[in-house]
Amino acid sequence: MKCKTLLTMTSLLVMLLVIILPMAQAQEAATGAAVSSQSPLSYVDGLYKEYAAGTDGKISFSVQTVENGSMADFAGKPFSSLVTVQPYRIVTDQLGTKLTNPRFVLPEDPGYGLHDMKYTADKFADYGFPLEHGLYRRLLVTATIGGDVRSHEAMEFYWPSLNHSAVLDPVVVFLESKVNTRLRLTAEGWGPRLMHRNATQNIASPSGTCGLSSNHGWTDEWWWWNSWTATAKDIFGITLWQETLGFQEIGISCTTSCKPSPWLVSNTSSSFSNLGYTTACANRGDTGITGSTARSIAETDCTEEFVGQASASVSVNGNGASISFSWHLGGSANSNGGIYTDSCGYF
User: Is the separation of the CB atoms in 219 and 188 below 8 Å?
Assistant: First the structure.
C-alpha cells in the first residue's frame, strides 16, 4: 500500500513538472504541427500578446479561462459544437513582422476563417496527439480595437507529455500562423534596410553642395525589403496556403545637375494553396517627379480565398511626386515593399 501511494505521488510530481517546465522552442514536429514555445498554461496568453505586439498596440486582448478538463470528453464532437461562433472576424494584413490594419470584419461568406470548425477533435490522433492524453481550456477572449470592445469564445488544447498546444479561435483569423510567421522573421532578422551613398563627387554651387533633403551629405538613398514567406496552417499543422513575397527596392539619386532621379526594382511573388483555398499575387512599381521632389513606389501583395477564386490587382492614383497605389484584393493582404519620397537641393 505504501509503495502504491509513493508511486502515485511520484507520478503526480512528474506530471506537474511536465506542465510547469518551459516547453521546447518553436519548431516543426515530424507531422508538420507547430510545437509550443511556452508551457501549456502560458502559451495561449503569450500568443495573443505577440499578435497584439505585431500591431504596435492597435489591438489588445484580455484572455480568461472559464472552463478546463480532459479532451477525452470531446470524442466524436466537431469543433463547431465546442465554441459559439460570432458573426464577425478579426483580420489583419501582414508586412513581414508587422500586423497592420487590425479590424473587425463582417464577412460576406459566413464560413470565412472557419476551415477548422468542420473537423472533430478525434483527428488530433491522426497526427500523434490522442484525446486521452490531452487537456483543454475554454477561453473568453476580449478584443479591443480603438474604442470597439468585443468578446468571443476560443479553446486551447494541450498535451503536457508531448509539449504541444493548439488554439481554436474562430474569430481571430489565422492567429497562430500569423504569430509563428512574425516570430520566425524576427529570429531571422528580417526588416526593411536603408542604404545610402555619400555626396563625395557632388558639383558645388555658390549656394552650397547638392544633396538629398533627408540627409544633405547623401546623393543616393534606397530602401530594400528582402523576400519573405507567409504560411497558413490549420489546427493540425497542415499547410493551407503559402505566399512568398518578392524582393522590392526603391531609391532616389541626385544627378550632377542636382535633379532627383527615382528608380525601383519590383519582383513578382509566388504562392500555392491547398484544401479548397486559392491564392493570387500582383506587383507594381512606379515613379514620379514634381519639381525637385521625387517619389518611388514598389510593392507586391498576395491574398487568399476559401470560397471563390482569389484575385489581386493594383492601379496607380495621382501623378508626379504624389502618385500612390490602390490595391484590389478579395481578402486580407500579405505585402512587401513601400514608398519613398525625397528631394534634391543645394545645402
Answer: no
Compute the Cα dihedral for 159, 21, 235, 116 and give only its sign: positive
Q: Judge if 204 and 166 occupy the same domain.
A: no
Number of domains in the chain: 2
Give the Cα separation of 53 and 65 in Å (integer): 21
Q: What mean pLDDT do residues 261-285 have?
A: 96
Neighbouring CB atoms inside 10 A of 151's CB total: 12
Chain segment 227-262, per-residue pLDDT in tens: 999 999 999 999 999 999 999 999 999 998 999 999
Please state whether the predicted TM-score (pTM) of the whole model is above 0.90.
Answer: no
Residues 150 and 214 in one domain: no
pLDDT higher at 133 or 7: 133
Q: Which domain holds residue 147?
A: 33-173
